Amino acid sequence: MELDTILVLVLVFSCSWLPLFPSQNTVKTGESITANHKLVSAGGSFALGFFTPANSTFIYLGIWYNTIPEQTVIWVANRESPIPQNSFPVFTIGDDGNLVIFYEKDKLIWSSNVKGELLTSNSTVGALLDNGNLVLKHGESNILWDSFEHPTDTLIRDMRLGFNKISGLRTVINSWTSNEDPRPGNFSFGIDGRMRFYTWKQNGIHYRFDDSSKGYMLRIAWYFSVITDNENVFLTLAYYKSPLRLRVVLNPIGYLQVMVWNRNGSNKWNIEFQLPQVKCELYAHCGPFGSCGIRSSGLCRCLTGFEPKFLKDWVNGKWNEGCVRKIALGCDGGDRFLKHENMKLPDHAIFLGNMSIKKCATQCIRNCSCSAYACSKNACFIWLGDLLDLADDITSSRALYVRVHGSELITDDLSGNSAQTYKIIIAEVVSTIFVILLLISIFACIFKRKHLKRPDRMNRNSSLVSSVPSGSLVAKDNMKLVQYSLQNVRDATNNFHKDNKIGEGGFGPVFKGFLDELGYVAIKRLSRRSSQGLEEFMNELKLIAKLQHKNLVSLLGCCVEGEEKILIYEYMLNCSLDKFLFDPLLKVTLDWGTRLGIIEGIAQGVLYLHKYSRLKVIHRDLKVSNILLDQEMIPKISDFGMARIFGTGQTQANTKRVVGTYGYISPEYVVYGQFSEKSDVFSFGVLLLEILTGERNSDFFMTDISMSLLGWAWKKWKEGRVSELIDPSIRETCDSNKATRSMLVALLCVQENPTDRPTMSDIVAMLSNETLAIPEPKEPAFRSSWRPQKLKDFSINEMTFSLPGPR
Fold first, then answer.
1. Is 15 helix (H, G, I), strand (E, B) or coil?
2. Residue 518's CATH number
3. CA–CA–CA angle 613, 619, 623 (5° rounding)
4. Among 64, 199, 239, 745, which is disulfide-ready with 206 (CB 3.0 to 4.6 Å)?
């Protein structure tokens, strides 16, 4: 017995530091990871182990993608304490219960460094989760430490960068020193307490993600979500197809890169997007009062009324000292403002609230320290002191009004000679521009004519009529569209690969594709199982090809081959409105000004369909998922498969086939099959309520009584509690008067009797003219909860309903 006991003790002791098997995802007391072994997460997505970067002489403990052949490290433990090669590092649970790395006779290199009562070596476990997070936990659910709270240079799903408003502590990602050296580099990226994104270089700002550069910010918003509470602001990843396929990296030279694995079968990491894109965008590149030409020269210039601080340096391309005023401000009532169009607005803006542009200018002129102001959609911003980080030639509609001494302005008091010279200069400039535009137009026509003759891409002379059953298009339409072969479409979408799928509607799936002639496009493929068939397909072709408006999606081409029926549209970077509106993380990007612009754009688009287009069109399927958003967040109405053309003077039509989406269909259409302009008005009213409240009508239920969104809005309106209807994410920042007017217009649109509803002309007028009186609404239709099956007793022969879903 004594010998058996000794053998057992020897066996236990010898096994206490055995390395783990590769399939294990946890490390416990007495277990360890050494140079030749690794942890693998339960689903096999990530691995943890020791690695040596290329051309390096040091060893690090890191986490990388386990299923991607190119080793891609997303996190490094001991990046500040590299281990020399030819050492024998060990990763295990230390005597104090922490995760530790040591080598050379228990020399401690790194520790999770957690302190607390729960921390003992016998009670803690290290685990690699399948989202790539390394955690130290006590029991199954009590996490004491995790690697996501201590990121390195990479942001992936479920990671959060943050800023604590009370302590001022910031969680950032920090670049590697070089591609072969994981030690902390010069650059970091994160968010501040005012929800602004920055890249820092050491202790200074390197790049500012400016919200006036709409194209950039909306692409950033596509990938990032911002979460805020009373104490913290967090930044997380928002959109990706798979947690394994997308990562955001801050590289060693300061570029923030959104990277996707295996784009179009490339079998490598592809840079989807990176910032900054040009040197001009670097922070304060041209110094105070200096502006850089983003898309033109890429050179710095002083704003009008300013000159280089050091002329010699400026001539030699050293612009960081910027510009100074030619004439000091008087602050005596003689100062004026010069308007600069399409500007990247300066840093350090001060928000004064919502007011008219005239009042905003008055607020600035009264403050002797105020250097400039900007007013966008009634939101007034001013800047005090130096104007930093300016750029021009930005594709946004922002205008910056810069304060200068009155003598710097060209006014109507010009002398005769000066005025004449000024007019001559203007005339010459206009003439030159006209000649250039004429030449560009001529060359564009020649290029287009040659380009469209390419047989491998399209056949300009082939009419769409010959590609579909005869009679599908009436002869008077005489419509010809750019027609692509099915092989072109397959190539553009990587054979309709699931990674390129961006949505699905009643028509069928929609894919993102790339065509050489058009760039990125949205490709809509008719599903064989779709309730919408050839009739809807031909309907959409006829309608959209003839409709041209900035708030309607553009049809670029089609493909009709065999049983395939495909439409090709312009690609909307931000997909559909419901992607933002009903996502609690993304809806913060829809501020009041953006929502108001979307509402006005939709109204203008529907008004065009009803009144100003070549054809009077009733859409019949207006809903939030059929509102697409471009990179500037301009709304575009899509999906005309259900639309109907009205003849001149026609106001109403009947159908035995009721189509549409639950929650948006008007009562007279559902019950009697009657549709008209007022059917679209009803749908617009529901859409307007959803935009204002941030709630979806189709799944809206109150806790105390089951009712529709329309009924809830009506109840709050009658109680005089309209402010409670507004989406909490914009309640504090919206223009209360405009929000109330918009809510009243929405209730007018959803009245039960069609004759009581306003026309789209009336709606546009009421939304844009704050002095126009608005009548009191009557009780809305479908005030209580409603379901399509309740209509089974009515005599409609055929009904096609769809449920709202993300685009």
1. helix
2. 3.30.200.20
3. 125
4. 199
Coil, helix or strand at residue 55: coil
- Does 130 share its domain with 179? no
Query: Which is more confidently placed, 248 or 663?
Result: 248
Query: Is there a contact between 649 and 632 (Cβ–Cβ < 8 Å)?
Result: no
Q: Tell me: the pLDDT tens digits for 379-393?
A: 899 998 899 999 887
Among this protein's residues, is 412 annotated catalytic? no
3-state secondary structure of 150: coil
* Angle, helix 677-693 to helix 760-768, in steps of 10 degrees: 30
Phi, psi of 231 (to 5 degrees): -110, -25
Provide the terminal-to-terminal Cα distance of the chain, rounded to the nearest Å. 73
**Where in the sequence is the domain holding 401, given as residue range(s)?**
290-408
* Backbone φ, ψ for residue 65 (5° rounding): -70, 130
The active-site residue out of 347, 389, 499, 621 is 621
Q: What angle do CA 545, 546, 547 make, to 5 degrees?
A: 100
- Tell whether 42 and 93 lie within a shared domain: yes
Token pair 């959109």: residue: 239
Radius of gyration of the chain (CA): 31
Residue 195: half-sphere exposure toward Cβ, Cα within 13 Å: 17
Whether residues 63 and 166 fall in one domain: no
Same domain, 476 and 566: yes
Return the CATH number at 645.
1.10.510.10
Question: Residue 504 has what pLDDT?
Answer: 76
End position of a domain, from candidates 243, 277, 311: 277
Max CA-CA distance within the chain? 120
567/692 same-domain check: no
pLDDT per residue over 18-48, tens digit each? 454 445 889 988 898 988 889 999 999 999 9
Instruction: Looking at the structure, tell me whether residues 765 and 625 fall in a common domain.
Output: yes
| CATH number of the domain residue 52 falls in | 2.90.10.10
Residues in the chain: 807
pLDDT bin (cut points 50, 70, 90) of residue 219 is low
440 within domain boundaries = no
Starting at the earlier edge strand, list the strands of the sheet with 124-128: 26-27, 124-128, 134-138, 142-146
Are 127 and 148 contacting, i.e. CB atoms less than 8 angstroms apart?
A: no
Residues 77 and 91 in one domain: yes
Q: Are residues 676 and 744 in the same domain?
A: yes
- Tell whether the model's pLDDT for residue 565 goes beyond 80: yes
